Amino acid sequence: MPAASTPPPTVPRSPLLALAVIAAGLLMVILDGSIVTVAMPAIQQDLRFSPTGLSWVVNAYLVAFGSLLLLAGRLGDLIGRKRMFLAGTAVFTAASLLAAAATTPTVLLAARFLQGIGSAMASAVGLGILVTLFPEPRERSRAIAVFSFTGAAGASIGQVLGGILTDALSWHWIFLINLPIGLAVLAVALPVLPADRGLGLAAGADVLGALLVTAGLMLGISTVVQIDNYGWTSAHTLGLGTLAVVLLAGFILRQATARTPLMPLRILRPRSVWGANLVQALMVAALFSFQILVALHLQQVLGYSATRTGLAMLPAAAAIGAVSLGVSARLSARFGEQRVLAAGIVLLIGVLGLLVRVPVHAHYLTDLLPVMLLAAGFGLALPALTALGMSGAGEGDAGLASGLFNTTQQIGMALGVATLSTLAASRTRGLLAAGQSRAAALTGGYHLAFATGAALLVVALLVSLAALRRPRRPHPAPDDHTTPAATPARTR
Fold first, then answer.
1. Which of 29, 73, 114, 1 is nearest to 399 (CA)?
2. pLDDT confidence tier of residue 457, bands split at 50, 70 and 90
């Protein structure tokens, strides 16, 4: 194997400082994913985005991020993970400056696409660097717990910070905030992260496969976003949709025949792998749109400021983080991942079901706060789903399975935002034409999107029950999962 001849990475003098650098890079990426949601109405008004075009502020980032994760991981193996992490952080930081300076939708979307590329480059190798830093199982568990906690905290901080910056300064500052973080990460990472030379570019990377899947996904999502303008059965929709399918089919064929495939198809043979990825795509398609559309509903219908919107969404992020770190592992150890996953999905169906019934003049405490708290179901479902998805992969394919899982998550988000935003906009337009008020029309559009998301979750529940089995191997004791998570939190 070529990997056996690769020189081992140097060990940094301070592994904890290196962990802090990787976690800071993750924090920047997570912040960017959540901070933009509460600023979207301000961006729409300032740059004159259409309702469907606005979804591309999120989708341009997600498509680049999700499509390039596998390629970025492979290139990290070839040129060295440290180089890829540094290059990705630099691209992301520069793209953030471009986004902050944007004065037209075109410039902002280009900057968001570049941010997605940088995020993919840095995120794809971050976990691989972490594994080399902490070879001992217990230390590695603690480090991964810090890594996971950073993600949960970043989502919570991003929504509140995005609202405060948008109200106090302007939406441009949600991107400028990345500059000091990115520059600090680069300055510390250069001397601290372990150096590795990689396998060398001669080992090969499936660039053609990456181009096929990126082009197919971009074209497919673009077609969905424009359905509201052209119709479902128009030549434009059917033609571009067919071309997108052809490109994605070409990607699959390429993976079956390439010497160094981006995604070897053997990874999809275990039922738990393809089942978990399908469930995840359906689940995040429904729930990331919940985050976007609820933020829009709070501001455009209920008249919340951006800061108040961030604070209103905070209980959901806090509940998800608390459950995923403090409860999910214990319940999985006792009842099994499949049951915990099913329970989490049922709670999430309840979330979107309640949102379908939210009135035009909703009260936060009675109509919305229960929804935010039930979102804790995501904290139950995602860790259990991750464990089930990884259980079917052999040790040699663990990294590939992890990359595929991350890719599915990002693409599910992009497709969910594009599809449900398009449905909501189309329904709103029809209600306005029928003479309803703007608030009532917007609420009706959101109701349709939430109902569609609930239907996706029902399908996800059925797939999880049919395709994912409770592992027969004994589960680790709860302390094996929960103790490491607590220890780093005291040392932060």
1. 73
2. very high
Look-up of token digits 């997108």 = 244
| 11-201 and 266-469, same CATH topology | yes
**Which residue's structure tokens are 């379908």?**
356
pLDDT at 459: 93
CATH 1.20.1250.20 is held by the domain 11-201: yes
Query: Residue 51: which pLDDT band, with cuts at 50, 70 and 90?
Result: low
Domain limits, the chain: 11-201, 206-261, 266-469
**What six digits make up the tokens of 138?**
């217990």
Handedness of CA 477, 275, 324, 26 (dihedral sign): positive
Q: Which two tokens stand for residue 395?
A: 């040790």
List b or e across 134-166, with b for residues whose CB sees 16 or more CB atoms inside 10 angstroms: beeeeebbbbbbbbbbbbbbbbbbbbbbbbbbb
- Give the side-chain half-sphere CA count within 13 A for 123: 29
| Least-confidence region, from 154-168, 324-338, 428-442, 445-459 | 154-168
Percent of the chain having pLDDT more than 90? 8
pLDDT of 482 over the 50 cut: no
Instruction: Report the 3 state secondary structure along the chain.
Output: CHHHHCCCCCCCCCHHHHHHHHHHHHHHHHHHHHHCCCCHHHHHHHHCCCHHHHCHHHHHHHHHHHHHHHHHHHHHHHHCHHHHHHHHHHHHHHHHHHHHCCCCHHHHHHHHHHHHHHHHHHHHHHHHHHHHHCCCHHHHHHHHHHHHHHHHHHHHHHHHHHHHHHHHCCCCHHHHCHHHHHHHHHHHHHHHCCCCCCCCHHHCCCHHHHHHHHHHHHHHHHHHHCHHHHCCCCHHHHHHHHHHHHHHHHHHHHHHHCCCCCCCHHHHCCHHHHHHHHHHHHHHHHHHHHHHHHHHHHHHCCCCCHHHHHHHHHHHHHHHHHHHHHCHHHHHHHHCHHHHHHHHHHHHHHHHHHHHCCCCCCCHHHHHHHHHHHCCHHHHHHHHHHHHHHHCCCHHHHHHHHHHHHHHHHHHHHHHHHHHHHHHHHHHHHHHHCCCCHHHHHHHHHHHHHHHHHHHHHHHHHHHHHHCCCCCCCCCCHHHHHHHHHHHHHHC
Given a cut of 90, whether residue 95 has pLDDT beyond it is yes
Q: Which CATH architecture is the domain 266-469 placed in?
A: Up-down Bundle (1.20)
Burial category of 432 from C-beta neighbours within 10 Å (exposed 0-12, middle 13-18, buried 19 and up): middle
Dist. CA 12–CA 406, nearest whole Å: 27
- Residue 177 — φ and ψ, nearest 5°? -65, -20
Task: Return the structure tokens found at 59.
Answer: 């989708």
